[in-house]
Amino acid sequence: MFIAAYVFASSPCRGLALMSGDDAKLDRRAMLFGKWRRDQTSAPALAAVSGEIRAINWVRPPGAIAPSLFVEACDGCGACAEVCPAQAIKMNGPAVAGRKPGPRIDAAQNPCVMCDSIACVAACPTTALAPVTRDAIRIAQIRFDPARCRAVDGSDATCAVCAERCPVGVAAISVAPGQGPTIAGGCTGCGVCVHYCPAAPPPLIQLPPMV
Q1: Domains in the chain: how many in total?
Q2: CB atoms within 10 A of CB 187
Q3: CA 179 from chain center: how many Å?
Q4: Does 142 have pLDDT greater than 70?
Q5: What is the three-class DSSP state of 54?
Q6: What pLDDT is attached to residue 172?
Q7: Quick one: which of 2, 30, 70, 125 has the most CB atoms within 10 Å?
Q8: Which residue has the higher pLDDT, 50 or 56?
Q9: What is the average per-residue pLDDT within 152-179?
Q10: Phi and psi, residue 25, nearest 5°
Q11: Domain span at residue 27?
């Protein structure tokens, strides 16, 4: 999106970086200065906006296995992107096995719409996207910042676009007039609510999935 606002600094999605010889040298040099380089190959890119929390601006497709395993299992074939009914999956993510660009979903451009067939998983010829039921998908976490919400600040007290657009429904999100949305346990993190929210920046924030 740019989705942007918050992500826990100790994100479980960092994973382990797959480093070339030059990369390893750079990391050893960084260690001498007390700095660790964040993984940019196996986890969504993180954008710093505060000292405590950061937001992700893209996610892997549904069923994606652990980041450090995903970059080895995915061969960058693009089969998932070809069958995505929403054309949400783009093959321009960090490199995967064979050093090809991997799949990513940027909800600012086109969010996952939680299609009934979970077509991307069915089409994947590798183990990178594992079989998953629709209600078990957890692409990301969604958090709510009331300071940005039009329903809360009174600029549009009846706004409920996030809940109206959610492909999961009340199991994932509901809105109380004047109070904004409540995110429930059924939220898959697909990003549809973030994509369609009329506020800028949106009060709904996509964070790395729980592992």
Answers
A1: 1
A2: 19
A3: 25
A4: yes
A5: strand
A6: 97
A7: 70
A8: 56
A9: 94
A10: -60, -40
A11: 21-207
